[in-house]
Specification:
Layout lengths: L4 H30 L6 H33 L1
Helix pairs in contact: 1-2
Length: 74
């Protein structure tokens, strides 16, 4: 399969969306923790792992999108 510019743009857009939305989620989670919200430890751990995994996915998709974009310029 050959990547086209539209594929590269989609991958980069999804990566950016993940970073923005999960960045906001991380900020809200930290705010809740900092304000002393009473939750079980599993809640904080599970949501923190979710944030890390989704940022890693964004990095992978962004990398693929960037490579696809460079490949379409040739």
């Amino acid at each position: 399969m050959r990547f086209e510019r539209k594929h590269a743009a989609l991958l980069l857009a999804v990566a950016a969306w993940n970073v923005v939305t999960f960045g906001q989620f991380a900020r809200n989670l930290w705010s809740a923790y900092d304000s002393g919200e009473d939750r079980a430890t599993g809640y904080w751990v599970a949501h923190s792992v979710l944030i890390v995994v989704n940022v890693a996915i964004a990095a992978i998709l962004g990398s693929l999108g960037w490579k696809a974009l460079r490949a379409t310029r040739r």
